[in-house]
Specification:
Length: 214
């Protein structure tokens, strides 16, 4: 019996994106016939720098998550990409890995696969939407992928009685100063909904995405 494969790949500094990635993987895995794989973008900072940032200890939470490979991307029918916001764009670690995808781009290996994104920022207006639109969307389009967001059928986008991430562009977390605020249940529910939505659409569209010849 064939399965639909969903890859959730992330870069996290203090754990907020990791927790959101877990929620997305949980949502995707709740769809019948779906196999989920969790992977992380390689770290480019030294342990010395991470220690000064106060991030080295946090990273032990996901140390056993394997680094993403090109084979993971080819295996997947749908891919959710996660990165914290860095001045309104994706983290350098994510961009560094993206710049290795020239071979997959040249061979049209990712054309027709579903793509989705999630992010986090310290403040409520810290560039979450620009990170997805400016950082991830061009990647998806250049690779020929089909973009999936977080639709308004997720009711958690509407309440205004609490601080919360999440937009039609994708689920997100407001981390607070120095990452002190942990993901809320509403933010995690947004991730679960997004994961389930991605997986459902991947199952619906079926396997074997292919480029259309001229």
């Amino acid at each position: 019996m064939s399965t639909t494969n969903v890859l959730v790949v992330f870069y996290s500094t203090y754990g907020h994106i990791y927790k959101l990635a877990q929620a997305i993987a949980e949502g995707a895995g709740s769809v019948e016939g779906v196999t989920v794989r969790l992977a992380r973008f390689p770290e480019t900072l030294s342990d010395e720098v991470l220690t000064k940032m106060g991030a080295l200890e946090a990273k032990k939470q996901w140390a056993d998550v394997p680094e993403v490979t090109h084979e993971d991307l080819q295996w997947a029918d749908a891919i959710a990409f996660g990165s914290p916001t860095r001045f309104g764009n994706i983290a350098a670690q994510v961009k560094t890995y993206i710049d290795t995808l020239g071979g997959l781009w040249a061979s049209n290996a990712l054309v027709g696969k579903l793509a989705s994104a999630f992010t986090s920022s310290n403040s409520q207006h810290g560039g979450q939407e620009t990170t997805i639109v400016c950082g991830f969307l061009p990647l998806f389009l250049h690779l020929g992928m089909l973009v999936v967001g977080l639709p308004y059928t997720f009711a958690g986008q509407f309440p205004v009685d609490e601080v919360s991430g999440g937009s039609p562009y994708g689920s997100s977390v407001v981390a607070g100063v120095w990452g002190a605020r942990q993901p809320s249940e509403n933010e995690l529910n947004g991730g679960r909904f997004q994961g389930k939505h991605i997986a459902t659409q991947a199952v619906r569209l079926g396997k074997q995405p292919a480029a259309i010849a001229n």
